[in-house]
Design goal:
Chain lengths: ~160, ~160
DNA sequence: GCTTGACTGTTACGATATAACACATGATAT
DNA sequence: ATATCATGTGTTATATCGTAACAGTCAAGC
């Protein structure tokens, strides 16, 4: 059974039904957890929900404050562990430039994302990175380097903020 | 007048005349400083030399320790300011993944580098990034995003460590 | 000589991240 | 049933990375 998937690559930059957007992402996370035997515990699930609320990167301490306010632990490891879990299972990504984390909108499909970070509104979108990765791998292979992981992060202006001047 | 330039893209991964390698980079830095009216003061120059000693990224505090041992200030801003100067004038680059800095081997030519980081020997090489950038810009443009700055960093194995298993 | 601006140094603090340990809980294994 | 074990959650304490704010130096320009 197949279905037409909406293009999520610039969703963060455009007006959209965000309730549906987060519900879908959460549902996919649950499906993946069930399939792979992951334990999407209350803290972990709530951390993901918090990241999903806005299409921007949040620092660990920002997430921690939210978790603490809701009755979870209030010490750094609480947030770091939940975030590490999400990242290690592809449910969130770490933005190196910002020392921050962003929810993944399509954890199901394997992907090597490129992050587009708007410096004005702070929105972070995940763009398809296949071409970029291919170019990167080719360049690396030319000098005998084997790429295992890569981070590609661009800072600039999203369409909305660009139009606003 | 033109001259054949050696390919520096994988220099960090191969055996080479490193004294000559650092001397050249330092000479280029001095030339650039003279041309652009930059003040390559003792701390700044020494910080660059320290980064040039090894083809790897060094943390600010690591550089600071070295500077302090040589009679410069021993407080964090001393290192951060010198490193910020080097980075802002293209004489060094910041590696986001590592919260660390690496000397640039060819500051003269404008470039949008891709960093190849060996997880085994920690060497960091700067590979040509034109193709990667082009792909990145194209992908961003497709969703209306304007790229202003980008960081592309790959972690993996360099040819030497790869051969060593 | 005096002002000005860039540079270097300091103290003090803020922000980010991890080590190490105590306890709970649920799944085996005896 | 109860001992054992693995995983997860919470804690305290500490490590690592980064910056704000201010004081002193020194050379350039008036
Ligand atoms: Zn949304
Ligand atoms: Zn924006
Ligand atoms: Zn060298
Ligand atoms: Zn290596």
């Amino acid at each position: 059974m197949s279905r037409v998937e909406p293009d999520l690559s610039a969703l963060a930059f455009s007006r959209h039904d965000h309730d549906r957007c987060t519900a879908t992402a959460l549902h996919q996370a649950e499906a993946q957890a069930a399939r792979d035997g992951l334990r999407l515990t209350p803290v972990r699930r709530r951390a993901l929900e918090i990241l999903l609320e806005a299409h921007r990167a949040m620092g660990a301490y920002e997430v921690l404050d939210r978790l603490a306010a809701e009755g979870f632990g209030r010490q750094p490891p609480v947030a770091y562990r939940a975030l590490d879990f999400l990242v290690s299972h592809g449910l969130a990504h770490r933005i190196q430039r910002l020392n921050a984390y962003v929810a993944c909108l399509h954890p199901a499909e394997p992907h090597a994302p490129v992050f587009l970070i708007c410096r004005a509104c702070e929105a972070v979108a995940e763009a398809p990175g296949a071409r970029v990765r291919a170019a990167l791998e080719a360049g690396a292979a030319a000098v005998g380097f084997t790429v295992e992981r890569a981070s590609v992060e661009a800072v600039g202006l999203c369409p909305t903020c660009s139009a606003a001047g």
